[in-house]
Design brief:
The structure is a single chain. The chain is α/β, with parallel strands linked by helices. The chain contains twelve helices and 19 strands. The chain folds into two domains: 348 residues, ANL, N-terminal domain (Rossmann fold); 89 residues, GMP Synthetase, Chain A, domain 3, CATH 3.30.300.
Length: 447
């Protein structure tokens, strides 16, 4: 048996030293900067934004052409608020110009390559350097520790298509530096959950990490099967919205609070709850995060807005004022934890998750899911698919109290919500299947 402290203080430093990695020293700096004042953190952010602007102006023709076309010069970025002068970039533009977005001096073949399907299912290619990846990992490590987990302690991961160690280096890293056990969300069955529990008992993870809804499904299995082996000291939910009723079930079954995290493959971690659960701390050192109305103006604190992100760390393929296609709520208060990192409220959903009424009104699908589950008993899970402006399918996983009366109540509720102008088709299903990524989508607008 290898004690976590030995992994943390001996094997990991030796492993990273051999790789020439600066991850640990960078992580230690982040541990300190989180407690700086908001003003000090914004000064770091502003300095990095100016450095990014200088770099782009000299080494990235794609953005330089965009800025020139918008009538901007190098001197256009004189104060932090000037970032709003820069044009917003969309997923569609990135897909059309991926190769052109690579900065001078970088070759795609020498960069780390990631793909994300996002809410549309269309692939988006992202390229970063090894150094940028280490900085992102160091930042995630800082936030992982907010759960009570410490480096070197094993982690139980609930994820789709998990990347298992294959090479000798990966196996050594998993054994001596950071052990993981996995439950593949593409095949969650009674037997796979029992196998996961056996692995948990053998390896002894302290942190349970995974997709929000996948953690909920695991919790339901654990409660149903009466498994006591899976006993995390911290739980980290990520990758999709954590619904309030699912959080309650997860915390009840595992007798442990959930820390919720928000991010995306394109820019990595955006916000994360701390141990106070009073909102999500924004990743100010790495990103500039804006919340915008549809007219492009900044929203007021407490008001939902589309999230636009500028990545201050990725030089190889810069993301400047990137429209994430998520909707979130900025907050204007200080967290009692003492960290200076600003706060945002819950993510209200992806743009693609918002349903549309015939009069143009938009409804947050995830909020509608929560309201429905609270209003009508007997629904274990539900998925809303709006195929047309006047046609909606509700996929329902029934509970014990679900019957024809509940089905009619559900249909009536949605008909009234859409002013009687939409056909509501209720489908009773055995389960809501995940997408190829292992994630689940509960509100899909195809209009």
């Amino acid at each position: 048996m290898i004690f976590p402290a030995i992994r943390r203080n001996f094997f990991e430093p030796m492993f990273l030293w051999k790789l020439g990695s600066s991850k640990l020293s960078y992580w230690r700096r982040l541990e300190k900067t989180q407690y700086l004042s908001r003003q000090e953190l914004e000064e770091i952010q502003w300095r990095r934004l100016q450095e990014l602007w200088d770099f782009i102006w000299q080494h990235n023709q794609f953005y330089r052409n965009r800025f020139l076309a918008a009538g901007l010069t190098r001197e256009s970025l004189a104060i932090p608020q000037d970032i709003t002068k820069l044009p917003i970039i969309t997923k569609q533009e990135i897909r059309a110009h991926t190769e052109a977005m690579i900065s001078d001096g970088y070759c795609e073949g020498n960069l780390l390559h990631f793909k994300t399907g996002g809410s549309t299912g269309k692939a988006l290619d992202i390229f970063i350097t090894e150094k940028c990846s280490e900085q992102r990992n160091a930042c995630a490590r800082r936030h992982d520790r907010w759960t009570g987990w410490e480096p070197g302690e094993p982690i139980g991961v609930v994820w789709g298509n998990p990347k298992l160690p294959v090479t000798f280096r990966e196996k050594i890293q998993d054994r001596l530096v950071q052990p993981y056990i996995y439950l593949d969300t593409m095949a969650v069955t009674e037997q796979s959950v029992r196998d996961f529990a056996d692995s948990w008992k053998r390896v002894g993870p302290t942190l349970l990490y995974g997709h929000a809804h996948s953690l909920f499904i695991l919790a339901c299995f654990v409660e149903q099967l009466g498994l006591a082996e899976i006993a995390p000291e911290g739980i980290l939910s990520t990758s999709m919205m954590l619904l309030s009723h699912e959080r309650k079930v997860i915390e009840k079954v595992f007798s442990c609070k959930v820390i919720d995290r928000y991010g995306c493959e394109e820019v990595s971690l955006i916000g994360c709850e701390c141990e106070r659960h009073d909102g999500m701390h924004l990743n100010t050192e790495h990103l500039v995060i804006e919340f915008l109305r549809e007219d492009g103006m900044q929203v007021n604190p407490g008001e939902p807005g589309q999230i636009v992100v500028t990545d201050l760390m990725n030089r190889a393929m810069p993301f400047v004022r990137y429209l994430v296609e998520d909707v979130g709520v900025p907050l204007n208060r200080q967290c009692p934890c003492g960290r200076g990192l600003p706060l945002m409220g819950k993510v209200e959903g992806r743009v693609a998750d918002f349903l549309e009424k015939p009069d143009g009104t938009r409804i947050a699908g995830i909020s509608l899911i929560e309201n429905t589950l609270t209003r009508i008993p007997g629904i274990d899970q539900m998925q809303i698919i709006q195929e047309k402006i006047d046609s909606i399918t509700l996929n329902v996983v029934p509970g014990l109290q679900f019957n024809e009366q509940r089905k009619e109540e559900l249909s009536m509720y949605f008909r009234e919500l859409f002013d009687g102008k939409a056909f509501i088709h209720v489908m009773v299903v055995d389960e809501i299947l995940p997408e190829k990524s292992g994630k689940y989508r509960f509100s899909i607008c195809l209009v």
